[in-house]
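The passage that follows is intended for readers who have already worked through the single-chain material. We present the inputs for a multi-component assembly, then the predicted structure in tokenized form, and finally a short commentary. You are encouraged to pause after the input and sketch how you expect the pieces to fit together before reading on.
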Amino acid sequence: MPLDKDTDFGTPAPRGPAGTVSLEIDGFAVTVPEGTSVMRAASTLGTQIPKLCATDSLKAFGSCRLCLVEIDGKRGTPASCTTPVEPGMKVTTQSDRLARLRRGVMELYISDHPLDCLTCSDNGDCELQDMAGAVGLRDVRYGLAGENHGGQAKDVSNPYFDFEPSKCIVCSRCVRACDEVQGTLALTVEGRGFDSHISVGGPDFFNSECVSCGACVQACPTATLQEKTVVEHGVPDRTVKTTCAYCGVGCSFKAELKGNQVIRMVPDKDGKANHGHSCVKGRFAWGYASHADRITKPMIRDHIDDSWREVSWDEAIGFAANRLMATQAEHGRKSIGAISSSRCTIEEVWLVQKMVRTAFSNNNIDTCARVCHSPTGYGLKQTYGTSAGTQDFDSVEEADVILLIGANPTDAHPVFASQMKRRLREGARLIIADPRAIDLVRTPHIEAAHHLALQPGTNVALVNALAHVAATEGLLDDDFVAARCEADSFADWLDFIHDPANSPEAAAAITGVAAEDIRAAARLYASGGRAAIYYGLGVTEHSQGSTMVMGMANLAMATGNIGRRGVGVNPLRGQNNVQGSCDMGSFPHEFPGYRHVSDAVTRKTFEAAWKRPQDGEPGLRIPNMFDEACGGTFKGLYVQGEDIAQSDPNTLHVEAALRALDILIVQDLFLNETARFAHVFLPGTSFLEKDGCFINAERRINRVRPAIPVKTGMAEWEVTQALTQAMGYNETSFASSADIMDEIAALTPTFADVSHARLDRDGSVQWPCNETAPQGTPIMHVDGFVRGKGHFVVTEFVPTTERTNRKFPLILTTGRILSQYNVGAQSRRTENARWHDEDVLELHPSDAEARGIRDGDWVSVRSRKGETTLRARHSGRMAPGVVYTTFHHPETGANVVTTENSDWATSCPEYKVTAVEVAPANHRSPWQEEHTGSASDARRINRDTHVEPAE
Amino acid sequence: MSNLPQRILVPGDSASRSVGADDVADRLTNALPAGTTIVRNGSRGLFWLEPLVEVERDGKRLGFGPVTVDDVDDLVAAGFPEDGHPLALGPVDTIPQLARQQRLIFARCGQDAPLDLPAYEAAGGLAGLARARAQSPDAIIEAVKTSGLRGRGGAGFPAGIKWETASKATGSETYLCCNADEGDSGTYADRLLMEGDPFTLIEGMCIAARAISATHGLVYLRSEYPDAIRTLKAAIDVWRDAGHFKGLSAGDSFDIEVRTGAGAYICGEESSMLNSLEGKRGEVRAKPPIPAISGLFGQPTIVNNVLTLASVPWILAHGGDAYREFGTGRSRGTQAFQLAGDIRQGALIELAFGASLRTLIEDFGGGTRSGRPLRAVQVGGPLGAYLAESDLDVALEYEALAAIGGMLGHGGIVVFNDTVNMARQARFAMEFCAIESCGKCTPCRVGATRGRETLDKIINGEDVTGNLALIEDLCELMTDGSLCAMGGLTPMPVRSAIKRFPEDFTRPLAAE
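Having made your guess, compare it with the prediction:
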């Protein structure tokens, strides 16, 4: 479609339920919700009152004074943006006097503005220019020689946008966006009077508190804050609406392009997960899609020590199919499997699991959720009946108490963090359970009521103690429990939770959190109003990950914090489509829709549709695949868009497993760490090329639409389908991604009413979306739990076997940083690398001092599994005894150190607890030496290049 | 009858100290027999007589002034005679410029040490609060409404109605903020009171707190008033120690905290003040919402000027109807006029509304200090209108001043003699606005600078007709288009100067 410019209503819609007000604007009657501004009311009539400081993403401010109107019976000329409608009001938006005033304002603006419109980067997209036209400015009688702000240096320090103060009109939209939209407050206005100017609170944007979310750039009405891509290429000319491919928030974007070149990504105001906001990754870090490292041609090699050979799609797919079939012929039906990607669309994932269940004839399908939120799926299914979070994101706006456990939203889910921060600034109370002092513990205008800095690995003891306090102090919601939950399992749980072993005093000894803090936090959660739990991998990636999920589910049920707005149990899911890949049956034990493979009725359904017998035995989970590969019984693997060699624990073991395979097929954008061990490389497509859907953490099915043509010649689903067919499965086939969605809807009851056509027409929807919930389901379990009655599970604390001792006295835990994303395959290949070009080990100064480690020293981190070397940083965020690192860079080898300890129920790795010792180092670890040495060898490509003779 | 004084009072306020009162007090301490009580009282506001030393003897308060340190020995030697000495003024309360005032707010100012709570009570202090404690909040508001008290900060909004709005607004807290950011040129009434009789302000705040069930009291006091800050803080401590903050309203949390400004004129504008109190940039807020409904930290908030609040104890003690007896039309009660500029007898004159400007300048002020002819008077601070000699018979009340294009503001009256160039004064108005604007709205932020530049062109004789037309357009824009009174009123001095003194704008500077 052509460039899609949103209507800007000038001021936000009033929040909450309200009556309506009828008034007259320029003689036209209009009825709007109470609390609407006169400006917005006029907008709904199609009357655009001139404005510069007003935009509907920000609260009315009233500074530009262009939007003045006349109102019968009111003195003067009030600003329409700051004047709320009143019943019977009669508003005049145009008169000679108003025209004179507006021209006067524009005359003042232009008297302090460079007249370089024709060569300005914002030419054609500038609100100042538009307004000069709208008010009919013809002359600047003050002249242009007066005092002005021209000639100031541009701040080009930010990699993605420039700040040109000479063009600033001091409307404060950037300052307000940083405050109201992002909540970082990095910007302010300094000076007063004519000297007022935007200040970033640091030497420049790059070296400031700015988090580069770009809200200011989007808000700026002039060229003052401008994307570098626009400066370089000019304004875009067409729009494609799509969905971000980074985290599980699932922000809607408008890709703005010029031809097939993306000029900028603009968060979509209509996006129900992000409401027009974004973070530095989504808005700016998409350059990886055209990075020089991107592989766009299929490649094969006989042996992993060979160089890669670029071949045709047919040859690559034929080679892969033959090897897979040969492997099955030699080692049996169950000797091959596949891993689907949470980075890909649900349609693409659907085809991978379908390939396994048809062409492979087994259930050896797993997905990267195995290593992140599999305990969420398990735990919430057991207790509530659905393997997903209970709320939509907007629910947080009605929470009174937020319990945040093992999640760092300002870094990992920044857009949702902004929404949460807004609610906290409105007065909601915050409890944080995290070993590390994350930003939300104390950030501008926000301070957590309680920070429970527990020892890694002791979540269950903590959640039991919280429940113990609620139960023993009479803070349970007995009515809710009686009406909605199982009496038997509740009684058992109540007995269990009353046990003094679960008291805060007992938990204090385990968690290191003072009993009175646990008590106070529990009281706040249980009696502070609507209480919502938000959690991340700090909950799931433990040996008791599933237990902890059920512990939280118990707590929420027992206190009645389920089934309405403002409450719930909400996983902050890591990847853009991790919810979707789970929904699509990427599990060795479950068909799509979380139906167990042992269920004969479900098997029959799929057998009828797919015309192939279905195996009632679960297949291999990822860690089992590795074990079986090392054991010689699992020989072939297809990995779609997941870099298991970097992301999975105990790298040495993973590498050994991959080396043992006869056929490893990697489908990815880049020759990643896993591809070092691959025989077939199938180039993947970036989200800008994909056509399908991602499902975010709130079960929202968002459309992903191709902004640019597929760079590889074949859509990813077509590749999977071709491979499936090459292996002899031809019973069904699809002509488009929309066709795949139709099969998903036909075979998955929770998706029954979903189709691309519907999503294109009505926008995103949250599953279940079917006959009983035709509009989708923002909040789950409203009138009853999906499983019927809520089920309480006894959650006994069992310490991890990963213990500290004299040799490994510290606990290593891992996390993420704002600018980078997971293994960094995408974000490292963007300018984001400038904020975080290496992973560092954070440790408490006292631990550092005891080991003679200075800030910035190289240190070795050694666990029972392996050793790696990285730079140390002293940090007060950590408690003594706990060290922390990120895992964005492959050479860090964080997972060389982590163990295969895993969740008892789902095998989700215990990434968050590894006993280590840290010591000063003057050399890199053996693994790093080997990795660096072999990395480039393993990526050699013999291209069929024709060399021109030298002249 | 002994000739020895029982007490000697030497003003300790900053105005008197600026003319040597501390040295005078020191010298008196040395010159008088040990044991003589020397009290540092507040100023009576008769500045041409400062330091005005008062001697208490035989139930009389005799005045001597202006006393320099060199006069002390002579006065002591002469035994502080009631008359016959060049500095002897006779009984203080018979000094005509004081005797002819109608002091309600300033009745106690200067009588005793500012922190002497028993003296305050003996002089009638605490009577209003006692009456208020015996009444319901609604009855207090009713009394204030009956009194006709209007905001003394300049806007003149009826105080009782404001209080009523806040008392009906819902919030978790209710704030009472006293605006003591007295930034208008030529004004000093707030300072005089806070340094001379701070308890009256505190009592007024306590009554207001009871009326609106305020949970917190704040005084926003400009940093340029270090003495007032010190005195007011000390007075609040004395008040608290005496238990007078107790039992004002449910929750019993009311107390007063003094917050110091940071030198911005605009923070005297109430919404900027609230932002400043919140720790934010002192930037004007758009209205609605009005502070009474959503003010400090989004809670119901009353912002009243020092003099508004200080009028309240008298109203409660004597009743709203008694207060109404003073004044005229819709301007009821008294106003503290402050004489400054080229004036012979600079002084604070508290009078009922309605006295003429001429009375103030000639009868109380004694004409110009320089002896040169009076040419212009600016009433109401730097944003007030410039009036001419022919305007001097205007009655000093809100409506009469508005009728001639002026305003009362905070009661400042600055006199200019015939050497003033009114084009330069108009330019100064724009320059002041350019410097002191909060920088939020365009007409004020950019307009004031362009106004200054355009007036420079006029002063230099460049296209005077065209530029005067441009100034008029700009004045219309600033008046109608500005967000707050700062930009909205800056045209008042400019337009009044052009209107009343056109010759100064058409005569190039070079020709002078």
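Commentary: Chain B touches chain A at residues 264, 266, 281-283, 286-288, 433-450, 453-454, 466, 470, 473-474, 476-477, 480-483 (CB under 8 Å). The mean pLDDT of chain B is 95. How closely did your sketch match?
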